Every structure is written in structure tokens, then in C-alpha cells.
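Below is one record:
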Amino acid sequence: MSFFDEAKHKVEEVVGKVEKNVGGAFGDSAMEFDGEAHEMHAEAAEEQDEKRDNDKLAQQRADEKALDDERRAERQAEREVSQSERANKPGMHRA
């Protein structure tokens, strides 16, 4: 999550808490409800951003692992070819 998004969610959460408390102090149930809604929306947005970041990180790790596996397979294939070429050279037969 970017710094801007995190800050935006925190500001919305704080505004919601203030609105909820002011509404409760003045007996304005609509303001209190709106404040609670803002607070919940900010928390949900933050959770959604964190999930997106975690999904992106998991995908990057999976991509890196796939690339590592591919490189490992290529190195193994190169070793096998090299061993095969050495075994097939004249005068290189093992007894």
C-alpha cells in the first residue's frame, strides 16, 4: 500500500471517530452513524489494500520461484549434455 493510500485511510478513520464521538456527545444519531460508517469504510479499504499487497507479493515470490526452477532445469540440462559429449568423444571411454 502506498504511503498516500495509508495516510488517506487513517485520516478517514480519524474523521469517522471524531464524527461518531461528536454525534454521540450531541445526541445526533445520524452524525454518529455517519462517523461509524466512515470509520468502518476506512478500515475495510485498508484491509483491502493490505490483501492486494499480500497477493502481489505472493505472485512475485511464485514468479521468482518459477524462474529459479527454470534456471535450475537449464543448468541440469547443460550438465547432462556436457557429460554426454564427454562420454562420446573418442579416446575418452572409461573402462
About this structure: The radius of gyration is 30 Å.
